[in-house]
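Quick review question:
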């Protein structure tokens, strides 16, 4: 699989995919048209072999380049389909979770407590208690109140638990959409504020929390990072904090750089592009985008940054939390064209069975290539708006997308749908799609399509009983 194509028109080969003699898209050796007919649409299709190879490549890059110990944790929030997690688990990736559900899922899939780190800005007492009960390896603390609560809960059971302090490094990679700039102190509440002194003050308090074991630091600078040096620059900002920890006798055993590595062939829009797209309908493209380097380049930049912090000391264990870069390139979303409308002076509209109200939320702020599965090689001769089935005007996939002519019944493929498409899908009037994995031309069902009964099963329909609520 190539990491990047400078061509304006990408081809399936850029994702490691092929076509059959008629030009129809093959995924994992299976016909996308046959998969759509067998399982229905919308349909998520996972290229299992390429998913596994990318996971292997990521682990190998960091364990080969970084001189100290390395632990790679898959970010469940990116794509929590159990069948996908099982694939990366077999390749040696551990678990990074952010909620009670994700922790329960990790345990259900066979992860043990010492394989799990717990992250996120919202950790209510039940989640913190579950961390203690299951003896998770690390809790990545986001606030002083969270640390106090965890210390209190651990004290009740005479337990000790390891913690990392999440640091907000006040660093935004160039061109990053403000919605994903998690290292911005003005635009994001995550972590202890480095520039304002909150992080340094927390070092003064951590030793007084007797049931917590300080292990080191965590940061996350955002999603879709394409320049490895962004990690080097963010790490260098931690130098005063590391030196302060050293003076206080705190040993930094673990350094967690988060994830955020970009997918090779899709990207988030910048703030300016998103504004322009919203106002003028001008859809950005991949052309002109800086290539996303290989995982090795990220590992090298991180290693240089850690070397700046620990020149004469033992290298801390490096934790990495990839999600998008692993899952995104190897899942394809298939949609069926329902109807085509053309209005004089207003353009052409293609109505499909999926849009941002149900299955394509990331296309609101990300660019993903779209192929006509029936004949990938057809010339793209017109600009169209692709919309979904919802009864609101914004339920669109893309506006002004250059496409070949399509007709009702055709199948479209949205590429790079492995990151956040399934996480944010909604049954807004429609059942949620099935997920299938394909390898060597054979498909296996990972998640069946939601039924109408399942969409209604949480509701108490026709039951008159009431429960008195105490004032």
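Suggested answer, residue by residue:
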């Amino acid at each position: 699989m190539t990491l990047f194509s400078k061509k304006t028109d990408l081809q399936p080969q850029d994702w490691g995919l092929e076509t059959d003699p008629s030009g129809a898209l093959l995924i994992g050796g299976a016909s996308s048209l046959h998969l759509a007919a067998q399982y229905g649409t919308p349909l998520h299709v996972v290229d299992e072999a390429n998913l596994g190879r990318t996971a292997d490549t990521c682990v190998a890059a960091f364990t080969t380049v970084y001189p100290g110990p390395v632990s790679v944790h898959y970010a469940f929030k990116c794509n929590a389909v159990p069948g996908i997690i099982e694939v990366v688990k077999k390749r040696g990736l551990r678990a990074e979770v952010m909620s009670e559900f994700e922790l329960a899922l990790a345990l259900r899939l066979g992860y043990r407590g010492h394989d799990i780190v717990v992250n996120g800005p919202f950790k209510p007492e039940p989640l913190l208690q579950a961390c203690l009960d299951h003896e998770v390896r690390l809790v990545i603390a986001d606030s002083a109140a969270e640390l106090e609560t965890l210390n209190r809960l651990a004290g009740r059971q005479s337990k000790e638990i390891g913690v990392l302090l999440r640091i907000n490094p006040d660093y935004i990679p160039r061109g990053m959409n403000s919605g994903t700039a998690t290292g911005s102190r003005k635009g994001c509440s995550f972590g202890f504020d480095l520039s304002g002194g909150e992080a340094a003050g927390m070092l003064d308090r951590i030793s007084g929390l007797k049931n917590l074991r300080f292990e080191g630091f965590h940061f996350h600078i955002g999603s879709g990072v394409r320049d490895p040096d962004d990690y080097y620059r963010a790490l260098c900002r931690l130098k005063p904090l590391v030196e302060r920890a050293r003076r206080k006798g705190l040993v930094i055993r673990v350094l967690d750089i988060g994830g955020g590595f970009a997918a090779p062939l899709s990207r988030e829009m910048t703030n300016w592009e998103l504004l322009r797209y919203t106002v003028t309908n001008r859809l950005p493209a991949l052309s002109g985008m800086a290539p996303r380097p290989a995982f090795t380049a990220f590992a090298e930049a991180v290693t240089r940054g850690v070397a700046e912090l620990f020149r004469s000391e033992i290298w801390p264990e490096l934790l990495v939390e990839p999600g998008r870069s692993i899952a995104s390139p190897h899942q394809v979303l298939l949609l069926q064209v329902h109807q085509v409308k053309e209005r004089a002076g207003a353009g052409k509209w293609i109505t499909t069975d999926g849009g941002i109200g149900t299955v394509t939320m990331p296309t609101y702020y990300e660019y993903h290539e779209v192929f006509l599965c029936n004949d990938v090689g057809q010339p793209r001769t017109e600009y169209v708006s692709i919309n979904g089935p919802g009864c609101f005007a914004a339920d669109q996939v893309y506006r002004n997308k250059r496409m070949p002519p399509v007709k009702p019944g055709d199948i479209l493929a949205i590429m790079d749908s492995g990151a956040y498409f399934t996480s944010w899908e909604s049954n807004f009037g429609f059942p949620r799609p099935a997920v299938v994995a394909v390898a060597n031309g054979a498909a296996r069902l990972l998640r069946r399509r939601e039924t109408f009964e399942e969409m209604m099963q949480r509701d108490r329909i026709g039951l008159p009983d009431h429960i008195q609520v105490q004032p």
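Why it works: The two ends are 62 Å apart (CA to CA). The longest helix spans residues 48-65.
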